[in-house]
Amino acid sequence: MPNLALPVGTTLDRYIMRRQNAFPFATGELSQLLRDIALASKIINREINRAGLIDIGGAAGSGNVQGEMQQKLDVIANIRFIRALKNGGEVCGIISEEDEHMIQTGNVNGKYVVAIDPLDGSSNIDVNVSIGTIFSIYRRVSPVGTEATLDDFMQGGRAQVAAGYVLYGSSTILVFTTGQGVSGFTYDNSLGEYILSHNDIRQPANGSIFSCNDGNADDYPAYVQDYLAQCKKQRLTGRYIGSLVADFHRNLIKGGIYLYPPTVKSPVGKLRLLYECYPMAFIAEQAGGMATDGQQPILDVRPVSLHQRSVLYIGSSEMVTQL
Ligand code: AHG
Ligand code: MN
Ligand code: MN
């Protein structure tokens, strides 16, 4: 028998309001920026849910800067996010997986810049498999009142003031950190609100799941092949969705490791440093997990270009350490 008097819970807005003073540079602008991102994600959630009914499935017929085929929803999600961030006013510059160059929002007084992967897991869009959005936020280093500069985005992973992702899965969840732990908010469709569902997420130090594209295994460095052989010997569980957000989220909650090693096709790794690896690494570390490129913590990898790629090993601390 459900408890009819059970409260609905804490909405994202209320949570942000309560915690605002604990946010870095608590001026209220970062709070507003997180709300803008949440709103854009609700709109994208709506589009994704209707994708089979209206003509927004399939390829857009264009390619992005990485030479990858853009899906219509990639393009739509990109437009939604950029519009929300422009209208919000707190952001002076954006970089997106879907745009080669930095985008000036026109809000020269905005104090923040945002790096986004508007839709992660594009290959899963048309087959009703989980997809996501990833974002990373920096406080600008260029003077307020001027346009954003590349330096604003090249501060390195440790300079992120907030990062998060939205997973459009069996339910939609927004997970983010502002550097004081990690919280998760599940979207309640009927209310149109994100409700706090995962307070202070801690990643188990160990787990039984390993996630990689096994089809590439012959390309992997020997130490990765050895590690995977150990995983299989111990009869760990292999799980790979092919959407970083979904694979990461499962491993965050259950314990596990995600690997995207160098391959012949992607010799320096496939995933993008600024809007895939950095934000996920920030969240992992904040939840007690680890993220490395095999040489150093991801957050210490030096950024040199907007769409730079990196190798990524991320997840439960003992598993990443053992690797
Ligand atoms: P995106 O759809 O934003 O381009 O990202 C896809 C990424 C990531 O989400 C996923 O883990 C990985 O590519 C899958 O790559 P493979 O198909 O090479 O395994
Ligand atoms: Mn992606
Ligand atoms: Mn993408």
Structural account:
The chain has helices at 12-19, 29-49, 72-88, 150-153, 222-233, 244-254, 273-286, 317-322; strands at residues 59-63, 69-71, 91-96, 103-104, 112-120, 131-139, 162-168, 172-177, 182-188, 193-198, 209-211, 237-238, 256-260, 271-272, 290-292, 309-310, 312-315. The chain is an alpha+beta fold and 323 residues long. It has 2 domains: 12-198, Fructose-1,6-Bisphosphatase, subunit A, domain 1 (Fructose-1,6-Bisphosphatase, Chain A, domain 1); 209-322, D-Maltodextrin-Binding Protein, domain 2 (3-Layer(aba) Sandwich), CATH 3.40.190. Helix 2 packs antiparallel against helix 3 (72-88). It is globular. The model has no long low-confidence stretch (mean pLDDT 93). One manganese (II) ion is lined by residues 74, 97, 117, 119-120, 122.
Topology readout:
Blueprint: H1 12-19, H2 29-49, E1 59-63, E2 69-71, H3 72-88, E3 91-96, E4 103-104, E5 112-120, E6 131-139, H4 150-153, E7 162-168, E8 172-177, E9 182-188, E10 193-198, E11 209-211, H5 222-233, E12 237-238, H6 244-254, E13 256-260, E14 271-272, H7 273-286, E15 290-292, E16 309-310, E17 312-315, H8 317-322
Helix pairs in contact: 2-3
Can you describe this structure in just a few lines?
The protein has 323 residues and is an alpha+beta fold.
CATH-assigned homologous superfamily of the largest domain = Fructose-1,6-Bisphosphatase, subunit A, domain 1
pLDDT below 50 for ≥5 consecutive residues: which ranges?
Answer: none
Q: Order the strands across the largest sheet as they lie in space.
A: 4-3-5-6-7-8-9-10
Class computed from helices, strands and strand pairing? alpha+beta
Ligand roster? 2,5-anhydro-1,6-di-O-phosphono-D-glucitol, manganese (II) ion
Q: Would you identify the CATH architecture of the largest domain?
A: 2-Layer Sandwich
Q: Please give the count of helices.
A: 8
Order of helices and strands: HHEEHEEEEHEEEEEHEHEEHEEEH
Count up the domains: 2
Question: Count of DSSP E strands?
Answer: 17
Averaging pLDDT over every residue, what do you get? 93
Largest sheet: 8 strands, mixed
CATH first level of the largest domain: which class?
Alpha Beta
User: What is the straight-line distance between the termini?
Assistant: 46 Å
According to CATH, the fold-level topology of the largest domain is Fructose-1,6-Bisphosphatase, Chain A, domain 1
Please state the CA-atom Rg, rounded to the nearest Å: 19 Å
